[in-house]
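Allow me, if you will, to draw on your knowledge of protein folds for a short while. The matter concerns a single protein, recorded as an amino acid sequence and a row of backbone structure tokens. Could you please explain, in whatever detail you think fit, how the structure tokens follow from the sequence? I remain grateful for any guidance, and I place the record below:

…
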Amino acid sequence: MRKREGECLKRSAIVLAGGFSNRFGQDKGLLRLGDRPLILHILDSISPIVDEVLIVVNSVGRKRDYVNLDPTAEIVIDRYKIQSPVVGTLTGFESAKGEYSLLLPCDTPFVSPKVAELLLDACIGSDAAIPKWSGGHIEPLQAAYHTRSALTASKKALRGEKSSMHLVISYLKKICYLPTSSFRQIDPQLMTFFNINSPEDMVKAERVLQTNIQRRSKSAQQLV
């Protein structure tokens, strides 16, 4: 779905890969799941549905780590030397050329392209489309945003003493909240929202990956 240079872009994907994980001793986006880095599993899913992919990192060294992973993705470095979780999102929104941007962390290898596309479609005419769990918890880092509105809100949030994605959202006027239950028809186990935060999560991810590979292999054999 990538467009030629000079054409108007409709959809961007921003993948946040700036953090160093103390639990794993390295950048989580570069952890190997199967025979590939985590972040490539994400890019495989979302690249076909957007016009550009941006990977946001926080240093020149990390840019070197990522630059050869996917030649079609643009690697951008945080532009603000402020310790805040909003910095990466602000950098992404500043760099994105699409009218709407899908925001994702680098540790969600099973994001469903259908869920991602649903979020982007739901965002049209709104400032954001954000998944919401039945208990009220929201997923602001796995959501779609109107890029310009989110950029303005991020700049306002960064001026605060305790900036956060929830503060960013408070500056948005029109938000479409989508119940996570509404995604079960296309992602029954809601694996889109599975984050790898520990070695135990990595073990589970390996099991899920092998199950998915076996299922695809079985389906391919049935078609022959």
Remarks:
- The first helix runs from residue 38 to 46.
- DSSP finds seven helices and eleven strands in the chain.
- Confidence is low (pLDDT under 50) at residues 3-7.
